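Methods, example record. To illustrate the input and output format used throughout this study, we show the complete record for Heparan sulfate-N-deacetylase N-terminal domain-containing protein. The sequence lines were provided to the predictor; the line carrying structure tokens was produced by it.
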Amino acid sequence: MLGVLRLRRLVRQVPLQTSFVFLFLLCILSVFLSSYFLYVVKRELEPSLASGRAADDLYVTPSRPLPFLSGAGGTLSSDGSRTDPVVLVFVESPYSQLGQEIVAILESARFRYRTEISPGKGDMPTLTDGRRGRFVLIVYENILKYVNMDAWNRELLDRYCIEFGVGMIGFFK
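The corresponding predicted structure is encoded as:
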């Protein structure tokens, strides 16, 4: 009981600046500890990938990115990519404001793009051309269209993104 009273009296007498310095040091310590755990300890705990495993057997976590598979997914082009440098943009309508702004940004950066209406059921555009991917990036004007997509198309799109290393960007209104 006496120890609790002493601690309470000590906390009351600590100036505000000292409290902020203590909290700052505590935050820095927690950042270092979490980064140590994520990049050192967790990597030791994860199983390593065998070189002969198939693409379906990959174990991917946020701390370990998907490795580049040279045999799976298609042939490499002269620049080393397995996809064409085209961006697929899913818009809600051809006249939507955000869709037009996305297209304007892509045009100003001189990216090749293809605009499609967000798929509902069964109207997903062709994603591959033989063993090559057709798109290097997929952009959704409304990410809820991707979330509410039917299971078949979503699985198809997810497999395409994993197999060809394609990124996806979605905007939320």
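Annotations derived from this record:
The beta strands are 86-91, 112-117, 128-129, 132-133, 137-140, 167-170.
Helices lie at 2-13, 16-45, 97-108, 143-147, 151-164.
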